[in-house]
Amino acid sequence: MSDEQREPILRVVPRPGDINANGHIFGGWVLSQMDIAAGIVAARRADGAVATVAIETMQFIAPVLLHDVISIYAEIERTGRTSMGIRIEVIASRDRGTEEVKVTGGLFTFVALDEQHRPRALPPL
């Protein structure tokens, strides 16, 4: 992802209930935030309902800590007839914003849905 004045799709602060036994934030919590952000981008491109159909790649690079503010960046990497791949990057801001750490990233695939929840063609750009 290019760094030129990019804005996060979502910014979230984990809560104490999101901590696992190691004192880090549950990976599933982070994954759900990524899915929400990617879904926003996908729904905008599809101009309607979408569904996550695959997580093609995702890697946890560093733990998310309780007082982190996470920023989730998402952009369309590829499109097909009914689907699109959304590249996601999660950056944690730590120590009152003095440190930024890439904690995870991934590629999520979404499909555009019609009123019967079946795949439909993406609208032209």
Summarize the helices and strands and which ones pair or pack.
Layout: E1 10-12, H1 27-46, E2 50-60, E3 69-79, E4 83-94, E5 99-112
Antiparallel strand pairs: 1-3, 2-5, 3-4, 4-5
Describe this structure in words.
The chain has one helix spanning 27-46, and strands at 10-12, 50-60, 69-79, 83-94, 99-112. With 125 residues, the protein is α+β, with helices and mostly antiparallel strands. It has a single domain, classed as Hotdog Thioesterase (Thiol Ester Dehydrase, Chain A, Roll), CATH 3.10.129.10. A five-stranded antiparallel β-sheet has the order 1-3-4-5-2, with helices on one face. A hairpin with a 4-residue loop joins strand 4 (83-94) and strand 5. The protein is elongated. The mean pLDDT is 94.
Q: How would you summarize this macromolecular structure in one to three sentences?
A:
The chain has 1 helix and 5 strands.
Give the tags.
1 helix, Thiol Ester Dehydrase, Chain A, alpha+beta, single chain, 125 residues, five-stranded antiparallel β-sheet, 16% helix
